[in-house]
């Protein structure tokens, strides 16, 4: 039908009505199509899924979080970075005042959508970053790690980057000298947040909440998981025989830590992903093989053999990678039954100074939320564990720390614990 050439008025009206109907239908369809595009899983749900018997590798720049709510996740994050509960509570007290622990809050109380772009002069996020100089690096980090700007783990990672490099008057070295939660809240506000709050408001809205947070979590998190925390009595007692070990696996200068995202190989393919994204299993085994054989065996070498022998998967490695790669490089392996996995058992295995543990787990550092392989390389004289972690620069720092064994054990996959040695298997 030619709507422009007909002389019949009725026909023209019918044409016009038909055209309008088509336009209405097109407009009605558009929102539904857009809505379908919005119905997607969070990036973490896609990147970090894993099946039983395999461990996926979280991208090295992403941090996993554990806790029942945002407050606990915040505390565990900073404790995992080496701060005390008092220092973590000081930060949390400030975040409570700034955002109520909600990473999507915009100054004034509005909730930001996942695709929000921060506005210069308007606070945003758990710390209420206000100006472009501090907002843009957050945006950039989100893009580079494929995380939404409202993602709590993204904002915590970014906050830690700021703290490590120093921002304004804030330095980690000075902050770590503070040992009381209310004082920590005062210092964090003065040097990091720098709001216009009066001293009275700082005490009421930041310092007092920090003390309350500390009191609430002292029993459950007061001794949690870092070089600064105390080990359990079980851990110390069960390692008395380990202190005379002649192993150099505890020596950070002697034990080779590989970074799976090293520019030399990070972009090389492993299964359907890159070595950086998913080859934590081969990277952990590369550390073990290098240490036990005395020959430098790198992640791309172990990744190649893993793939050829069928232990690589879509985004990670199957647990039998420890068996396959050990045998390929002439090492002996023993699978520790799940029912026997304990701090005492692992300490016993490590006590000869000639054995290393390859395992995986899910949770906070040194693991990741979707699963990550690490090496347990020895027991210190005071009962702490040293690990080898290939997870980027953060993994290197994790490898320098001494960890509470019970903390590591609580996140380990107990079905995937292998003792590997250069001794002949009997």
Summary of the model, kept short:
This protein is α+β, with helices and mostly antiparallel strands. It is built from 17 helices and ten strands. The protein has helices spanning 9-38, 43-47, 70-80, 85-99, 132-144, 152-165, 172-175, 181-193, 199-221, 233-237, 275-278, 280-293, 299-308, 321-328, 343-350, 392-400, 405-409; strands at residues 54-56, 269-270, 273-274, 312-313, 316-318, 332-335, 355-361, 372-379, 385-388, 412-421.
Helix count, DSSP H or I runs of 4 or more residues = 17
Shape: globular
Q: How would you name the CATH homologous superfamily of the largest domain?
A: Cysteine proteinases
**Total domain count:** 2
Strand order in the largest sheet: 6-10-7-8-9
CATH topology of the largest domain: Cathepsin B, Chain A
Q: Indicate the low-confidence ranges by residue numbers.
A: 1-11, 22-52, 224-247
What can you see in these coordinates?
The protein is built from 17 helices and 10 strands. With 426 residues, the protein is an alpha+beta fold. It folds into 2 domains: 137 residues, Orthogonal Bundle (Lysozyme); 189 residues, Cysteine proteinases (Cathepsin B, Chain A). The strands form 3 sheets. The protein has a 5-stranded antiparallel sheet with strand order 6-10-7-8-9. Strands 1-5-4 form a 3-stranded antiparallel sheet. The protein is globular and about 65 Å long. The N terminus is likely disordered.
Characteristics:
426 residues; alpha+beta; five-stranded antiparallel sheet; 17 helices; 11% strand; disordered N terminus
């Amino acid at each position: 039908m030619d709507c422009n050439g007909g002389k019949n008025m009725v026909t023209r009206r019918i044409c016009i009505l038909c055209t309008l109907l088509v336009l209405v239908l097109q407009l009605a369809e558009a929102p539904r199509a857009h809505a379908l595009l919005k119905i997607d899983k969070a990036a973490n749900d896609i990147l970090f899924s894993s099946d039983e018997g395999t461990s996926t590798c979280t991208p090295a720049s992403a941090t996993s979080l554990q806790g029942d709510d945002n407050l606990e996740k915040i505390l565990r994050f900073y404790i995992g970075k080496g701060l005390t509960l008092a220092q973590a509570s000081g930060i949390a007290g400030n975040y409570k005042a700034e955002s109520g622990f909600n990473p999507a809050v915009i100054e004034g109380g509005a909730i930001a959508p996942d695709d929000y772009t921060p506005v210069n002069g308007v606070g945003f996020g758990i710390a209420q970053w206000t100006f472009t100089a501090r907002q843009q690096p957050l945006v950039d980090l989100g893009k580079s790690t494929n995380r939404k700007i409202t993602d709590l783990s993204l904002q915590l990672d970014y906050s830690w980057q700021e703290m490590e490099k120093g921002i304004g008057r804030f330095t980690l070295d000075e902050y770590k000298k503070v040992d009381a939660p209310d004082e920590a809240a005062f210092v964090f506000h003065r040097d990091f947040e720098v709001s216009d709050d009066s001293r009275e408001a700082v005490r009421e809205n930041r310092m007092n909440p920090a003390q309350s947070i500390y009191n609430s979590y002292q029993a459950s998190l007061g001794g949690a998981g870092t070089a600064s925390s105390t080990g359990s009595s079980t851990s110390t007692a069960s390692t008395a025989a380990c202190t005379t070990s002649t192993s150099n696996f505890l020596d950070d200068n002697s034990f080779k830590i590989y970074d799976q995202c090293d520019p030399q190989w990070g972009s090389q393919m492993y299964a359907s992903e890159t070595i950086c994204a998913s080859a934590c299993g081969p990277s952990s085994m590369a550390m073990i093989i290098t240490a036990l054989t005395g020959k430098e065996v790198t992640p791309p070498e172990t990744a190649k053999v893993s793939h050829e022998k069928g232990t690589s998967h879509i985004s990670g490695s199957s647990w039998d990678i420890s068996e396959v790669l050990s045998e390929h490089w002439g090492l002996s392996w023993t699978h520790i039954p799940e029912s026997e996995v304990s701090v005492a058992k692992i300490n016993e295995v490590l006590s000869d100074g000639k054995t290393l543990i390859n395992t995986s787990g899910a949770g906070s550092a040194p693991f990741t939320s979707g699963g990550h392989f690490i090496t347990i390389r020895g027991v210190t004289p005071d009962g702490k564990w040293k690990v080898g972690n290939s997870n980027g620069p953060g993994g290197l720092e994790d490898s320098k720390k001494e960890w509470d064994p019970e903390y590591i054990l609580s996140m380990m996959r107990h079905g995937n614990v292998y003792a590997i040695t250069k001794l002949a298997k009997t």
